[in-house]
């Protein structure tokens, strides 16, 4: 529904205050537009790699900024520069620092140059990695480029407010919420609403009834593709009309507003904010009739796909042009009969526009100087060093050429410095003098500095880094209490929930029935539906709930029912969660715990073994593969004391096996990144994990009967793997290595082999070729026979080990075949 508004309803301000606010907004819009225009030129001249800007969306973002309050969160996309400027979180110089990829977090606070421009973030953590008071600042979760990828996280950011308002025990968490009054604001382009993540999130937010405001910036195109090819009825608000709340039913409040109408926008955003903030009702704002003056990005021109009529319309209805026209034409008669105006003449606006150009031009120059001066100093140091080396080296002419080539580069980058230095070093391989050592140290120092600039903060580097948390063994009663292993999980989760009011567990079937394996049996009844809850079948937004809530100080445990279903959420895990700390240079975190189960499952779709794909897509998340429920419970306890995200893969066929119930539930801890030798042996080391270990143990008993003594190492943790390098100690003893895995060939087994043979230098100790034994290249066929002929069996393991020993001692171990 379109909202009609009178000026008097926009704000309860004096006319002078209103006038000042309007002109300030116009100035912000002009500054943002000038940044876009000048930013495009910087890309086209080669000073920046790529540009994607927010021109054409300035005015609605000004309105959104007015309704955005301290404690609120934005989860948006790469057009929101005006909004960030309006809330005071982005300066023009910072805008250009991002465009140039300046690697100083103080100068480029969005990502320290790790993301292209247009990706915005605020700092949730201080210099020590501790939470700041998020209610005292305006917050933006760090953007990602994948279209609609910001949507799942948005759901969690909004749900956190509902949790803080309604869950007892969180009253002291005042750094994160004030009675759940915070709104999560999402932004997206109209074309990206075609993505499944958008619809999944919209549906979930309507079910959960959380304070989320979804803003759709609609300029009728998705790159070059018109809305008629994107959206049914060419309108997202039209096709979502069924979500409109009626007669107190759950649903959305839906607004449609023209993106060039400043007054209408301000009124709409104020109304939307009040509804979401006070009533915790989600809102959709469809902002239509927007433009994209420079096209989608610097990679193309919109004149190629827009008609002459469309381009003429865009020029007239450019939101800044319409705001300018409104300011010029505005007149209001007060009670005394005086005519009130925003400006005396057009010259006033022209002056604002000129000042905006000057400010942006200066910001661009200052940003470029800050970026290049630092590098030029390093260039000068390298040239001086190479010059002194050239004078002493027998190959001085070659080194002089590299020095001169470096000096001739008008706009050098650090790559140019190291290319010259490293190539010069090659000519010194047969020479020894002091300057050579200086050059070696210069190169090493430069690479070490680059490691901080480009590789730091993949995981926590604070005192809460999960790898630093010491193990604590389970304790047991004097009289053994043997139970189904699921009881250990259930009782440990109960201890966790009782100890930590900020912990929430949710997923498909996780609530009422206590998960499909009864690991949460009865816990919803004890702790309530908000802390132990069921969700719809929507894995991506289950992950998103967890990410968003973890970013606001809660400790969610998001359950994905089976490991294979993780593929539905893998993009969100990989692009958002795994990169969050890295892409913010350690200024944001989401210590989400993901719970799932797999291993040794029977059938194509429940094979439970895509580990190679997972571990190579989620660097930045711990991947933990416990062999039993006691180990798994210990991992949950460890993760909750740290501040890194983690994935725990429980053994599906282990819930009914018997284990002894510990007495220190919620307290014992399994170390992350530490292997465990579960059987000593002398002839060969077998490394495996999860349920496959039980098959390895079975095979080891059979091998012992023919005189082969196997040592079994449980990896326990794939990311990271064996930080103490204990596996190589086993290989040094046995001189042989077999990695057994139920993943496809070249998957997790290949990763483990590289870790042991290459990174741990295990090759030095091998008397036989290191080998892997994996599942077949396909997924397992259904049924027990399908499993037997698809994945490594005890017989497969026996024969593989026997074959290795036959090669080593054919006289003792005669060939089986």
From TrEMBL:
Reported cofactor(s): thiamine diphosphate
Pfam families: E1_dh, Transket_pyr, Transketolase_C
Biological processes annotated in GO: branched-chain amino acid catabolic process; response to nutrient
Keywords assigned: Oxidoreductase, Pyruvate, Thiamine pyrophosphate
Transketolase-like pyrimidine-binding domain sequence ranges: 483-657
Coiled coil: none
Function noted in UniProt: E1 component of the 2-oxoglutarate dehydrogenase (OGDH) complex which catalyzes the decarboxylation of 2-oxoglutarate, the first step in the conversion of 2-oxoglutarate to succinyl-CoA and CO(2).
Protein name: 3-methyl-2-oxobutanoate dehydrogenase (2-methylpropanoyl-transferring)
């Amino acid at each position: 529904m379109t909202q009609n508004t009178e000026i008097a309803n926009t704000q309860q301000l004096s006319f002078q205050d209103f006038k000042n606010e309007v002109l300030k907004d116009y100035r912000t819009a002009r500054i943002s537009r000038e940044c876009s225009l000048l930013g495009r030129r910087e890309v086209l001249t080669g000073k920046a790699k790529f540009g994607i800007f927010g021109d054409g969306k300035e005015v609605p973002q000004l309105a959104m900024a007015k309704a955005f309050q301290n404690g609120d969160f934005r989860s948006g996309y790469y057009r929101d520069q005006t909004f960030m400027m309006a809330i005071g979180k982005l300066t023009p110089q910072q805008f250009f620092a991002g465009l140039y990829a300046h690697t100083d977090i103080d100068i480029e606070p969005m990502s320290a140059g790790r993301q292209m421009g247009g990706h915005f973030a605020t700092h949730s953590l201080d210099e020590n990695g501790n939470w700041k008071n998020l209610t005292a600042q305006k917050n933006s979760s760090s953007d990602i480029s994948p279209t609609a990828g910001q949507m799942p996280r948005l759901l969690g950011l909004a749900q956190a407010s509902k949790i803080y308002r309604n869950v007892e025990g969180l009253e002291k968490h005042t750094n994160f919420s004030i009675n759940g009054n915070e709104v999560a604001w999402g932004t997206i382009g109209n074309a990206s609403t075609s993505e499944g993540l958008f619809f999944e999130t919209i549906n979930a937010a309507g079910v959960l009834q959380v304070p989320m405001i979804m803003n759709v910036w609609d300029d009728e195109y998705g790159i070059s593709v018109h809305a008629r090819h994107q959206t049914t009825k060419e309108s997202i608000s039209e096709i979502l009309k069924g979500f409109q709340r009626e007669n107190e039913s759950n649903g959305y409040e839906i607004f449609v507003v023209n993106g060039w109408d400043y007054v209408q926008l301000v009124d709409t955003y104020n109304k939307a904010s009040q509804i979401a903030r006070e009533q915790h009702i989600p809102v959709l704002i469809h902002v239509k009739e927007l433009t994209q003056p420079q096209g989608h990005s610097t990679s193309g021109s919109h004149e190629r796909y827009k008609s002459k009529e469309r381009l003429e319309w865009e020029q007239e209805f450019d939101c800044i042009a319409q705001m300018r026209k409104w300011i010029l034409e505005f007149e209001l008669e007060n009670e005394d009969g005086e005519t009130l105006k925003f400006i005396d003449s057009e010259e006033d606006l022209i002056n604002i526009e000129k000042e905006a150009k000057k400010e942006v031009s200066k910001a661009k120059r200052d940003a470029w100087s800050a970026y290049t001066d630092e590098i030029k100093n390093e260039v000068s140091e390298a040239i001086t060093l190479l010059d002194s080396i050239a004078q002493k080296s027998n190959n001085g002419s070659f080194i002089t050429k590299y020095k001169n080539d470096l000096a001739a580069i008008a706009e050098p980058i650090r790559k140019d410095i190291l290319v010259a230095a490293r190539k010069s070093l090659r000519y010194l391989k047969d020479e020894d003098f002091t300057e050579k050592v200086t050059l070696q140290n210069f190169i090493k120092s430069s690479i070490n500095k680059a490691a901080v600039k480009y590789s730091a903060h993949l995981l926590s580097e604070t005192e809460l880094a999960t790898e630093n948390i010491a193990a604590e063994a389970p304790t047991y009663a004097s009289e053994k209490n043997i139970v189904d292993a699921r009881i250990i999980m259930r009782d440990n989760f109960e201890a966790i929930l009782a100890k930590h009011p900020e912990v929430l567990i949710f997923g498909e079937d996780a609530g009422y029935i206590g998960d499909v394996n009864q690991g949460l049996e009865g816990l919803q009844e004890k702790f309530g539906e908000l802390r132990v809850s069921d969700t719809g079948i929507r894995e991506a937004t289950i992950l998103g709930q967890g990410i968003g809530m973890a970013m606001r100080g809660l400790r969610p445990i998001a359950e994905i029912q089976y490991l294979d279903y993780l593929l539905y959420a893998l993009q969100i895990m990989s692009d958002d969660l795994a990169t969050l700390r890295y892409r913010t240079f350690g200024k944001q975190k989401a210590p989400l715990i993901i719970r799932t189960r797999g291993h040794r499952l029977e059938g194509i779709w429940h094979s439970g073994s895509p580990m190679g794909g997972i571990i190579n897509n989620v660097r930045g998340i711990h991947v933990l593969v416990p062999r039993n429920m006691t180990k798994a419970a210990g991992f949950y306890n460890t993760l909750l004391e740290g501040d890194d995200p983690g994935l725990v893969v429980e053994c599906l066929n282990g819930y009914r096996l018997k284990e002894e119930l510990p007495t220190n539930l919620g307290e014992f801890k399994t170390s992350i990144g530490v292997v465990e030798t579960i059987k000593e042996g002398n002839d060969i080391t077998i490394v495996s994990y999860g349920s496959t270990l039980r098959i390895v143990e079975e095979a080891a008993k059979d091998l012992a009967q023919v005189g082969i003594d196997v040592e079994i190492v449980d990896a326990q943790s794939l990311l990271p793997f064996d930080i103490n390098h204990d596996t190589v100690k086993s290989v040094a003893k046995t001189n042989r290595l077999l990695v057994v895995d139920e993943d496809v060939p070249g998957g997790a087994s290949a990763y483990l082999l590289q870790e042991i043979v290459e990174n741990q230098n295990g090759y030095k100790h091998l008397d036989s070729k290191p080998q892997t034994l994996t599942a077949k290249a396909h997924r397992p066929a259904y049924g027990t026979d399908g499993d037997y002929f698809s994945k490594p069996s005890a017989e497969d393991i026996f024969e593989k080990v026997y074959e290795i020993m036959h090669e080593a001692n054919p006289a003792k171990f005669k060939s089986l075949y």
